[in-house]
Amino acid sequence: MLLLGNDAIARGILEAGIGVVTTYPGTPASEIGDSISEIAESAGLYMEYSVNEMVAVQVAAGAANCGVRALTAMKHVGLNVAADMVMTLAYVGVRGGYVIVTADDPECYSSQNEQDSRYYALLSNLPCLEPSNPQEAKEMTVSAVEVSEKLELPVFLRTTTRVSHTRGPVEYGSVVKPSLSGNFIRDMKRLIMVPAFSRPKHEVLLKQAARATEISEASLCNSVLQKGGEVGIVSSGSAFNYAVEAANLLGLDAGFLKLGMTHPLPEKKIAAFLRLYSKIVIVEELDPYLETQIKAIAKDQAPNVEICGKMTDASFPKEGELSTRLVAIGLSKISGKRLPIDFRKTGEKYAEVLRALPSRPPILCAGCPHRASYFVIKKVGGDKAVYPDDIGCYALGISPPLNVGDIMICMGASVGMAQGISKVTGKDTIATLGDSTFFHGAIPGLINAVYNDSRIVVAVLDNQTTAMTGHQPHAGTGVTGMGTPAQRVLVEKVAEGCGVKYVRVVNPFKVKEATAVLKEALRHPGPSVVVFRSPCTLLDLREKRRRGIRILPARISDKCTNCMACVKLLGCPALVVVDDRARIDETMCTACGLCASVCPYSAIEGSCLE
Amino acid sequence: MKEFNIVLAGVGGQGILLAAEILGTAAVKEGLNVRVSEIHGMAQRGGAVTSSVRIGESVLAPTVTDGQADVLLGFEPLETARNLKYASEKTLVIMSSERIPPSARGAMNYLSIEEVKQKIHCFTVKLVVVHASELARVAGSSLAQNSVLVGALAAVTGFPVKVENVIDALKELVPTKHVEMNVKAFRLGYEAMEKERADQL
User: Fold this and answer.
1) Which residue of chain A has the CA closest to B22?
2) In which domain, by residue range, is A595 found?
């Protein structure tokens, strides 16, 4: 079967007999939860989209401490959210096998940073497995459960974009029927982390970590794939693939030690490999995580070997993703082998082509309600207000002509940062964030605004889904990960419950009404919440298609003076300029009516709400 | 065959990921090792999309090395040019002729097809322009453009997967009600490429 790396992990979940799967969606990890959500009921396991990664780990850890096998999937930055729980869960441990999947995103394809999450394994003393392709992703999911049960510790499965989002052939093993029935055994010394019990549990953790090293020494995941050669290459994850191909490209005769269990490292195995060579090259993506540790091993066990990588000799970059080209350039520098391709020459030729090309950044879809919300927000707040932004599709509002979004860091941060900005500048401050992000990370920030009486406006752009990651349900949607109906948690009710005095819900496509409400919110002396509610246009279109509703695109009448206000104000991809005239692309137009409401000459006709 | 590298380039929404999955599935049906790489999330919202399919026994990395594409399958002229770093004189560029301006503003400095062709010719002389949208419309809908291009690719000399396997993969992965149209689109693409080859001879 050809499987996406993430789908291979989902398959591994079935082959490992995992009973509880929790997740918060995030690229590049989302498909793990989504694939399980589709089949959870028929496969007899429990799956949930948790409100955030911290809660996802808590739910799974609860189940795993009752002896049920569990897995939590998240993107790398999600692990920062869950870290408080994970660090001490390492002391408590688990009874049922428990796997924490963290998907890193070198090159920031869909993320705000490119942190190297392997350090969490080092920090927490927990084992970490690192697959390099879909087949390994499946196998290591199963191995991770085995290691977890042997050590009674959670185990990390760390992927990167090029593993999670690579398709490759995968051979299936047999499915193990999941058990969902656990039993809670009271054991205060094991489960209650007060200082008196934490101290001995830290010792236990270190003993288990030493046992983990033995597992790592014996693990087939860590193996010498090729002996001999002029240099020895140590590599892991996707970097291994580039290293092998780059060595082939150069005709470099190299030995390979491939590490699939990257915490704890198999020190003896590594030392034995180091002693075979006078020169060792460490090829890894992002930080010199292996390199620092292998240099430490070498100091005691192979002091004469020269170790190259990204530290002293800087042969490979610490930032961005690797490629066969980058690894080949580094290996060429280290070994003196000539590159068979003149990358610099083609690079220069390509740079020249690139200079002539207009860029094509991702943009808000035609008919996206966020475009209407941002149009209103910018109209009311103008250039003077400050706009703390958040993580999600609405981050695309930073592009012209909307230009909304002044600072964006992590999930839910818009609400907290708005308070600091408002405090010291006295400016109108409008935080913008989505519905799923609101539930994920903004509620404590909102309570803080009420408690400390901060004069901020929180604009929740509620499109009733987690759109950017593939339309997963969340607390506000009324559906669970199992596909069953759920009680809807409404943003406005939460805001009122937190003590916000000014809470309003508007339809962003009703531009006049939304504008009036937002102006009033800005005048309110304390924190206010305005919910801009309209469903994600992609879901709305799908629903309309399903119900056989035809969409009549907007039309430009002869009243058009070609003032281009619609084009300049909205930047909608369905508004195109053909032969210097504004035109509507009928295949793209969703008839949202926003252009009709901004046209100063009422020259656009279509499904307008006003 | 040592390896066969394909880079697919276009705009989010053109069915590039589906085309790549069809090619990968077809390779597995053929009993060949394959890696397909794709980028999800942020990149898909109407932005530039690049995917790659690498077929061959020794293939490990999911991405194509600069200059090493056997075929650059361009779903859109501008995006074809944007991915020329994967091309060299050995590369065959198959390009759809229909342009999608990046935005109403970007449209002003959009290159003409002739200018795009010139850029391509700096890298390789092997260029075939396919009127993929037109052929897709003949098949039933412009949305089947990806099947036209997959068909054109399947007719390339040296492409290591049998046509039947590609069609089987397409039938498996395309929604049932659109299968017939997409198979027709595939055949039109295949024939267009065959004709091109005959003309070159």
Assistant:
1) A2
2) 550-605
Residue A130 · residue A139 · CB < 8 Å: no
Number of domains in chain A: 4
Give the model's pLDDT for residue A176.
98
CA dist B65 and B47 (Å) reads 22
pLDDT at B187: 98
Query: Would you call B25 an interface residue with chain A, using a CB distance cutoff of 8 Å?
Result: yes
Whole-number Å distance between alpha carbons of A557 and A605: 7
Do A342 and A377 belong together in one domain? Answer: no
Please check whether residue A355 lies inside any domain of the structure: no
Distance from CA of A323 to the nearest CA of B (A): 7
Distances (CA, A) of B80 to A486, B13, B83, B96, B97: 46, 16, 5, 9, 10
The last residue of a domain, from among A218, A234, A263: A218
Predicted TM-score of the model (pTM): 0.97
User: How wide is the angle at C-alpha A318 spanned by C-alphas A316 and A321, nearest 5°?
Assistant: 85
Are A54 and A82 found together in one domain?
yes
Instruction: Select from A494, A517, A544 the last residue of a domain.
Output: A544
Claim to verify: residue A584 and residue A474 sit in the same structural domain: no
> Inter-chain contact A362–B46, Cβ cutoff 8 Å?
yes
- As assigned by CATH, the class of the B4-200 domain is alpha beta
**Whole-number pLDDT of residue B45:** 67
Q: Does residue B56 sit at the A interface (CB-CB below 8 Å)?
A: no
| Low-confidence residues of chain B: pLDDT under 70 | 1, 41-45, 104-109, 201
What's A529's domain CATH number?
Answer: 3.40.50.970
Q: How many of the other CB atoms lie within 10 Å of CB of B187?
A: 18
Interchain contact, A165 vs B25, CB within 8 Å: no
pLDDT less than 70: residues of chain A: 607-610
CA distance B69 to chain A (A): 13
User: Does residue A241 lie in a domain region?
Assistant: yes
Collect all residues with Cβ–Cβ distance below 8 Å to A262 and sequence separation of at least 6.
A118, A121, A128, A129, A130, A158, A236, A237, A289, A290
B interface mutation test: which of A32, A353, A370 has the most B CBs within 10 A?
A353
**What does each C-alpha distance from A521 to A384, A386, A455, A458, A492 come to in angstroms?**
16, 15, 10, 9, 14
For chain B, where are the E strands, in sequence order? 4-11, 34-37, 48-55, 71-74, 92-96, 127-130
* Contacting A residues, span 345-384, partner chain B, CB-CB under 8 Å: 346-347, 349-350, 353-354, 356-365
Nearest 5°: CA angle at A422, between A421 and A426?
Answer: 120
Going across the sheet that includes A2-4, the strands are A2-4, A166-169, B34-37, B48-55, B4-11, B71-74, B92-96, B127-130
* Domain shared by A454 and A485, yes or no: yes
Q: Are residues A437 and A566 in the same domain?
A: no
**Contact residues, chain B, for A245 at CB < 8 Å:** 58, 60-61, 65
A424 touches chain B (CB under 8 A): no
Residues of chain B in contact with residue A363, where contact means CB-CB under 8 angstroms, are 45-47, 103
Structure tokens at A293: 């540790």
Together in a domain, A559 and A584: yes
Shortest CA distance from A368: residue in chain B: B45
CB–CB contact B67 A343 (8 Å): yes
Q: Is B66 on the interface with A (CB under 8 A)?
A: yes
Cβ-based contacts of B25 with chain A (< 8 Å): 2
Identity of the residue in A1, A110, A244 whose CB atom sits nearest the CB atom of B41:
A110
- pLDDT value at position A608? 44
Assign residue A297 the CATH number of its domain: 3.40.50.920
Q: Are B14 and B49 within 8 A, CB to CB?
A: yes
Q: Please identify among residues 127-166 of chain B the ones whose CB lies closer than 8 Å to any CB of chain A.
A: 142
A414 and A510 belong to one structural domain: yes
Q: Are residues A25 and A80 in the same domain?
A: yes
ipTM confidence score: 0.96
pLDDT, position B201: 60
